[in-house]
Structure formats: structure tokens, C-alpha cells
Amino acid sequence: MLGGTELKVCVLGLGYIGLPTAAVIARTGAQVLGIDVSPHVVETVNSGRVHIEEVDLDGLVSGVVARGSLRASTQIEPADVFVIAVPTPFGADHVPDVGYVLKAATAVATVLKVGDTVILESTSPVGTTEQVRDFIAELRPDLKVPGRSSGGHADVAIAYCPERVLPGRILVELIDNDRVIGGITPRCARRALHFYRRFVRGACVTTTARAAEMTKLTENAFRDVNIAFANELSRVAETLGVDVWEVIRLANRHPRVNILQPGPGVGGHCIAVDPWFLVHGAPDDTQLIRTAREVNDAKCDHVIARASALIAAHPGVPVACLGLAFKANIDDFRESPALKVAVALAQRFGSRVQIVEPYADTLPSAFDGTGATLVDLDDALERAGVMIALVDHDLFRSVPLEERCDKHVYDTRGIWPDQPAVADSRAMRLAS
Ligand code: SAJ
């Protein structure tokens, strides 16, 4: 059935990855059923709407739902291909929690039949796809699973293919990015490859499930280590009284240097989480990866200390915190360092603190009882005497110098290169 127009696909998890993936597959003419534990999500998708903000996703979902190619349910149904895209958080001590993956595998096992393909897309510790295979083998002893049954071909294919898309560009990157497809066996990898060819324009490269799992973790750990380098540089530059943004701009003129941008820490549900899966898998061999995580987390506390010192140095002056999202131009506040900083400042300075976040209608509950208020950018620019820039939303970048030059500014993202260095930065250094 693979490649035919009647292909039935079941996507488990309709979050930031699952819903766009389900919609893109539905656009190829496949019959897609999206499964989610939340009745609200299921209802929203079935009415042709979306519960997450992502460029062009609303139009795509409403189109494929109207055409009858995509529907959602809380109950799994038989299909030809199952794509598991559920969260993999970590628990206490950063131990990975693959409970949602195994729960999804349990549901798949109830309807699995000869000829089906099961693909895990969730970012997972190395060995999880084999765990899924073992789980299915135990629940369905009637089926020959790959790599465990001797004699003849396996009845089902099981593979790992990590998503690698960037929030804000998901629909483009789902199609254009290369995919790494790791099979439990080479035959499993080829089956999954055949499926991805339906909608991926980038190269599809096959390997083992374990190598594909580690590849995904490696990509995000690589980025985390490089951001940690930038964050460490920003602290060195503060100590030495140098403008880190200028140093990075100049260093990046070297043909083999490409330093990332410092910020208030690393957020989101990927870069701040996935490196721990490598640390957990090989604790004695991951000094650098672990330290990078710690450097990035410590940067957030450092920003809270410096911002607090700046605010305390100007008693009674209204403060504007610009941004809560974990990065620019998105509405996602998960693991957001900007949110953590703003909440800490609101808890300490109460109603003096105003929050500007164009992607929020109300303040998150973490601000309850602090006295902080959500205001629009114009109000903040009119009233605030201290401004802490926490997110590089385009809206904030567009504020010209004439609207900021009379304020005490702490720009944690380097969005305003023309902001004059003020005596405050020395005061902040001494106080923090
Ligand atoms: N950040 C910096 N400085 C930078 C770049 C990012 O401080 O120079 C911060 C951001 O502000 C944010 C965090 O890092 O708080 C993460 O943002 P991001 O844009 O680096 O990454 P994500 O989490 O949106 O998406 C990443 C991507 N991975 C890589 O680029 C290697 C994406 O391709 C993955 O699909 C995604 O993780 C995922 O789902 O794993």
C-alpha cells in the first residue's frame, strides 16, 4: 500500500510536530487520523482549526480537514503506517521519561497487522526504538517483529526518524530538510524511507535506529554547547568591560569561526532537554555536554541578578520586561528563560514590573499575585524608565533609538547595537 493514494496513516500526538506532520501527509492524498489524549485538541482539529501557532498551519489544516484527508480522535484505529510524535520529557535528576512513547506503542500494538510500519519521531534516548520493538513483541506474540524472530521476514517494520524542524519554519523544514531514517533492520529503514519520500524533498538517508537516535541528540547538544560558548563569552566580556556583540560580529569575520548569540539562557523543549539524554546514556563521558547545560542554565540566574541590580539602582522607576517566549516571533513559553527572568523580577519588584509580550493575551499563571501587568509596547515605551529586553521579537527590534535613549536598558539579546553603553552597566557589574 505504501505510496498509493489510499495509504492510511495514524499520527500519535498532535502537538508542535505531530499536527504539522499529519497535515503535510494528508496533503499527499493519504487518509490521516491524528490521535491525541486531549479531547479539546481533537475537537479543535476536527473543526478545521489549530491549537498551536505556526506559520501557515491554520490554512493547511482547515484545507485537509475540509477535504476529509485529516481527522482526529482520542481512539486509535487500524492503519498502514503509525507515526509516534509524543513528548519525551525528563523527570527528577534529568532522567529521560519515555512513558508517553511506550503508551503510544501499547495503543499501536492493539491494532497492528502484518505489513504495517511503525515509526518513532519523538526525540528519544538511544535504545528507545528497540524498547518499542520489545514492547510490541511482548504485547503481540502473534506477529514476527524485526530483529527478534528468526526465519523469514518480519511481519512489521519498526524505525526511528527524528523530526528536525525549527518552530516558526516547521512547514517548510518538514519538506526541505534531510531526514535520517534508522531501521531496526535495513529492511525496516527502507520501508520507512518509502513513506518519507511521499512528502520529503530533502535527502532521506538510512542507518540503524540507534545511530538515528544519537544523531538527533547530537544535533541539539551541538547547538547547546555552541550557545553555551556564546553565553560564557558574554560573561567574560562583561567582566572585561567589552561589548560581546561587537566581539562576536568581528570574530565571525574569520572564515572558520561562527559564534552563536548569547541570551538570557536556553529554552524550549528541545535544546534545553535533549543533551541530558546523552548525559544519562553515558554519564562518565559527557563532561562538556553536561557543563554546557549548566553554563546555559546559570546564564539565566546571572541575568536575573543583573536585572535586579539595575532595577534596584532606580527605586520607584517603572520597569518593562520585553518578551516571555523562549525565542523570537513564536507563542511558545515552554522552558522559557525570558519567562523565568520576568517572573523572578515580578516577584521581587511587584507592580513596578510591566510585561510586553505580543504573543500573549493574558499573563501566564506564574505571575499570579505578583502585581505585574501585561501592557502593550507603546504603553511600556511611554511609562517605563528601566527596560529589560528578553526576547528578540521583530516588534522589539523595530524600536528606534529615540524611543529608548532616555531609558536604562539591559539588552540581553543584543537587539539594539546602537544603544549607548551607560554607567548602569558598571553599576550592574558591581552589584551582581
Ligand atoms: N538560542 C540562543 N542563541 C542562539 C540560538 C538560540 O540563545 O544563537 C536560544 C533560543 O533563544 C532558544 C533556544 O536557544 O531559547 C533554542 O532555540 P533554537 O532556535 O536554537 O532551537 P529550537 O529549540 O527552536 O529547535 C531546535 C532545532 N535544533 C537545531 O537547530 C540543532 C530544531 O532543528 C529541532 O528540530 C528542534 O530543536 C527539536 O525539535 O529538537
Automatic annotation (TrEMBL):
Key words, A-Z: NAD, Oxidoreductase
Keyword match Oxidoreductase: yes
One GO BP annotation of this record: polysaccharide biosynthetic process
Start and end residues of each UDP-glucose/GDP-mannose dehydrogenase C-terminal domain: 320-418
A GO MF term: oxidoreductase activity, acting on the CH-CH group of donors, NAD or NADP as acceptor
Protein family: Belongs to the UDP-glucose/GDP-mannose dehydrogenase family.
Full protein name: UDP-N-acetyl-D-mannosaminuronic acid dehydrogenase
